[in-house]
Design goal:
- With 263 residues, the protein is of the alpha+beta class.
- 46% of the residues lie in helices and 22% in strands.
- Strand 9 (216-218) and strand 10 form a beta hairpin.
- Helix 1 (4-19) crosses helix 3, helix 5 (87-97) packs antiparallel against helix 12 (253-260) and helix 7 (151-161) runs antiparallel to helix 8.
C-alpha cells in the first residue's frame, strides 16, 4: 500500500503535468478530493522539499516537482511494452503534447551464411540481400560467429569491434528504410536551446540515434537534463518499427501513449 508521502508526491506530479504550473496544498486537495488537511499536505510538502523532490520559488508560491522527482515518476510509469500504434495519432498528438517522435522501419534480415570466394572475397548472404567484402582469415572467422543474427545486431557489433568495412556495407542497406520524424520543430527548439552541434543534430535527423537505442528510457545519455527519450519496438499496420519519443520531463506521456496505442 502506498504511504501518505508517496501518494502526495505522485498527486502533485500528476497535477503539475496536467496544469504546467506550481501547485499549492489547498489546490491539490480540491483537485483530487484528498482527505488530508491543507496543513498536513504542507507538512509533507516540506519533507519532500527537504528530500529534493519538490521546489518552491518563494514562501507563498506553490510547489513544483524537481527533475529527480519527475525522473523517478516516469521510470515507474513508462516501463511497458508498446504493441500497435496509430501513425496518424502519433503525428497529431506529437504537436498537441509537445514531443518529437522518430519512427524507423525495422528490417528483419538474418545473416544466413557466408561464402569464401578463393580467399579474395567474403560474401555475406542475408535473407533478402548480399554484400561482398575483401577476405581476411581473421574477418572470416569473426563473421562466422555472426551467422543467424539479425541485421541491426550485426551493424551494432561490427561498429563496436571496429570491423568498419562490414559495418559500412551492411549499414548502407539498413539506412535504406522508411524513416519519419513527427514535430521536427520541437526537436530543433531543443537542439538550439542546448547548442547541439551538427553531428548530434544529424544523428537524430537521419535516424542514426535509433540504431544505438534499445527498448527503454534514456536521460542524459542522449538528451539534456530535464528531458527524457523513450524507445519502443512496436508495429504500425503490421510493420515492425522502432519508435523514439523525446520531450521534456513535464510532458504528459501517459496521455500520449494512451491515445496512440491500439489494443
Amino acid at each position: 500500500m502506498i504511504n501518505k508521502k508517496d501518494f502526495l508526491l505522485q498527486s502533485i506530479i500528476k497535477a503539475y503535468i496536467e496544469n504546467c504550473e506550481p501547485i499549492g496544498s489547498s489546490q491539490l486537495k480540491s483537485m483530487y478530493d484528498i482527505t488530508y488537511s491543507p496543513a498536513t499536505i504542507r507538512s509533507y510538502f516540506k519533507k519532500l522539499g527537504d528530500e529534493g523532490y519538490l521546489a518552491q520559488e518563494h514562501v507563498s508560491s506553490g510547489r513544483t516537482p524537481t527533475i529527480e522527482a519527475l525522473t523517478q515518476y516516469w521510470l515507474k510509469k513508462l516501463r511497458f511494452k508498446l504493441n500497435n500504434i496509430d501513425a496518424n495519432l502519433v503525428n497529431s498528438l506529437s504537436y498537441e503534447v509537445g514531443l518529437s517522435v522518430f519512427i524507423q522501419e525495422q528490417k528483419s534480415d538474418i545473416l544466413n551464411k557466408i561464402l569464401n570466394v578463393e580467399n579474395k572475397y567474403i560474401i555475406l548472404e542475408f535473407s533478402t540481400f548480399a554484400v561482398t567484402i575483401k577476405y581476411s582469415n581473421t574477418l572470416y572467422r569473426f563473421i562466422s560467429d555472426l551467422i543467424d543474427l539479425e541485421l541491426s545486431h550485426i551493424v551494432s557489433i561490427t561498429k563496436q569491434v571496429g570491423a568498419y568495412e562490414v559495418y559500412e556495407q551492411v549499414n548502407q542497406y539498413l539506412q535504406n528504410k522508411d524513416f519519419h520524424i513527427y514535430n521536427t520543430k520541437e526537436f530543433f527548439t531543443l537542439a538550439l536551446r542546448y547548442n547541439f552541434d551538427e553531428e548530434r543534430i544529424n544523428k537524430f535527423l537521419k535516424g542514426n540515434i535509433l540504431d544505438s537505442c534499445d527498448e527503454g528510457l534514456y536521460f542524459e545519455e542522449i538528451v539534456p537534463q530535464g528531458y527524457i527519450a523513450i524507445c519502443h519496438n512496436c508495429k504500425i499496420n503490421n510493420t515492425q518499427v522502432k519508435i523514439l519519443v523525446v520531450g521534456e520531463l513535464s510532458k504528459d506521456y501517459e496521455y500520449f501513449y494512451n491515445q496512440i496505442s491500439i489494443n
